[in-house]
Amino acid sequence: IAQGLERRLHHEGFLTSILDGDNVRTGINKNLGFSEEDRIENIRRIAEINKLLLQNGIITINSFVSPTKDIRLLAQQIIGEPDFCEIYINASFDTCAQRDVKGLYKKALNGEIKNFTGLDAPFEAPENPALEIKTEEQINKELAQISEDEIINYLKMTSDSKDVAAISSVVDQSQLPSEADYMDDAFMESFMKELEQTENKTN
Q1: Fewer CB in a 10 Å sphere around the end CB: N or C, the chain?
Q2: Are 166 and 159 in contact (CB under 8 A)?
Q3: H or E, element range at 89
Q4: Is the pTM of the predicted complex or chain greater than 0.85?
Q5: Is the distance from CB of 91 to CB of 138 less than 8 angstroms?
């Protein structure tokens, strides 16, 4: 869903970036596990990266398990409520286990992964998400298309697309970080130093 949404926004001329477990936990957050403390730190770092990208006019799409209300609130506070849009992709544990694209649910059910969300670690469903997409009854292709349509329509209703386009048009796309950049230690060290400098200027 995130990849399809990113392609559609990019096609319409918006600058976009996707953050997910594949590019974040193999790069900047590769030293974190799945304890409660590490989950909080994982989302905190992600939110700080979002904040920096947004300051440069880049729409950032995040595809993560954010299991508790407090963790999601932390992300919202860092990013800023006006720029934070919570979309709840609603699927039961059983449905996720059946899909199990990466084989993680099988490992968790076999006891190979501990502190697994929805199994031996809690999940608190969002109470008032900006948008909820129920995925139980849709097959993958239909689900992706319908979900993208719902999100695009929501964004059009709630955003000033002219302002977003104006911001996007002045950013050089060649300067955007790629997925490979997020997995490069030297790049991420430089990226975090820039983030800290930006925070110091605003504090």
Answers
A1: C
A2: no
A3: strand 87-90
A4: no
A5: no
